[in-house]
Amino acid sequence: MKKIFALIAVIFIACFSFGGCTKNQPPPSTDTEQREITAMYITINGNKLEVDLAENSSVDALVERLKQGDIVYTANDYGGFEKVGNLGFSLPTDNTQITTQAGDVILYSGNQIVLFYGSNTWSYTQLGKINGYSASELRALLGAGDGAMQVSLSLK
């Protein structure tokens, strides 16, 4: 009798355990789900550049911050291939070893935005890519070698 009771108890527990795992769970994510905001804008010297955003937690945090208002910072030339500016706050990083290209918008050290007009290989977090400009156009627009400039990031 004890063996039958133990067997029934095991079957009862197994049925409710497996059944409970599949009830009331959200449907799995699909590749067709898309982020609500897929672009941001960088304004430099009156020129508004569209940036296609990457998909990572750093971009999600940046978008949430931009929903509160524009971010304005000063960017300085560095290394003859980029403009770097401190945001004044930190974002989560999602670093991978990459070789940048002109137009890449990168998060460095969690608190600096880098706008590339040249190339470099390092462990960075990709934020996005500037649309519609050649490397030479970006060099001119970003004032390659010319020192500091004001940069504004926005969602509109």
Structure characteristics:
alpha+beta, 156 residues, single chain, Cyclophilin
Rg over C-alpha atoms, rounded to the nearest angstrom? 24 Å
Shape: globular
CATH architecture: Beta Barrel
Low-confidence stretches: 9-34
Strand content: 35-45%
Q: How many helices in DSSP terms?
A: 3
- Helix/strand-derived category reads alpha+beta
N-end to C-end Cα span: 74 Å
Number of domains: 1
Q: According to CATH, what is the topology?
A: Cyclophilin
Oligomer: single chain
Strand order of the largest sheet: 1-2-8-6-7-4-3-9
What features would you describe in this structure?
This protein is α+β, with helices and mostly antiparallel strands and 156 residues long. It has one domain: Cyclophilin, CATH 2.40.100.20. 24% of the residues lie in helices and 36% in strands. It has an 8-stranded antiparallel beta barrel with strand order 1-2-8-6-7-4-3-9. Strand 6 and strand 7 form a beta hairpin. About 17% of the residues have low confidence.
